[in-house]
């Protein structure tokens, strides 16, 4: 299942405009905050699909029948661009456990590249709801490799894969390579074009550099 949130009218559209705008991008603090706010919106939307249980809450004046989350959540993030996006999810799923993965492009002499997983620090994900976040999905290969690497820590009962901007190619790649996985793909918007160097067009540029400065 693929859910595209930009098709619904909400403030998400405003925040996506701001992270794309080359003038607004000059303010890295605002860029990070917008990634965080977008994460909060996705967290709220995903929360509507989860399981809840009934409880009674003692108030100063009586008993209030209520509902609380009944799923165990693990928030997984691909470093480094995903950190502020991940923080938006953590603001809402504040009791969640977490997984951190470093995935990067290792370029070859012919300018092709391979995706390398360098570091993982993860909670147990067995029979839990895994929410994997990365602001940009260009080819989708880093997300698939990240998920496969995390299987060392258990098999989740459901996987939510979340990006703000995805290429059409990455969505098809995920659907093809996650067959048999109980998953939902969430994205803010799908851009059709991918350059020969696998950059999304119009995209927004390098989210990691915009959030934290250029890397050497």
In percent terms, what proportion of residues is strand? Answer: 35-45%
How many runs of DSSP E, i.e. beta strands? 12
Instruction: Supply the CATH architecture.
Output: 3-Layer(aba) Sandwich
**Approximate shape:** globular
For the biggest sheet, the summary is: 8 strands, mixed
Specify the number of helices: 6
How many individual domains? 1
Walk me through this protein's architecture.
The chain has 6 helices and 12 strands. The radius of gyration is 18 Å and the shape is globular. 31% of the residues lie in helices and 36% in strands. The protein has a single domain (2-49, 73-212), classed as Rossmann fold, CATH 3.40.50.2020. The chain is of the alpha/beta class and 216 residues long. The protein has helices spanning 12-20, 28-47, 82-92, 141-150, 168-177, 207-212; strands at 2-4, 52-59, 62-69, 73-79, 97-107, 113-122, 129-133, 136-137, 158-167, 183-191, 193-194, 200-201. Strands 1, 4, 5, 6, 7, 8, 9 and 10 form an 8-stranded mixed beta sheet that branches.
What is the element layout, followed by pairings?
Blueprint: E1 2-4, H1 12-20, H2 28-47, E2 52-59, E3 62-69, E4 73-79, H3 82-92, E5 97-107, E6 113-122, E7 129-133, E8 136-137, H4 141-150, E9 158-167, H5 168-177, E10 183-191, E11 193-194, E12 200-201, H6 207-212
Parallel strand pairs: 1-10, 4-5, 4-7, 7-9, 8-9, 9-10
Antiparallel strand pairs: 2-3, 5-6, 11-12
Helix pairs in contact: 1-2, 2-3
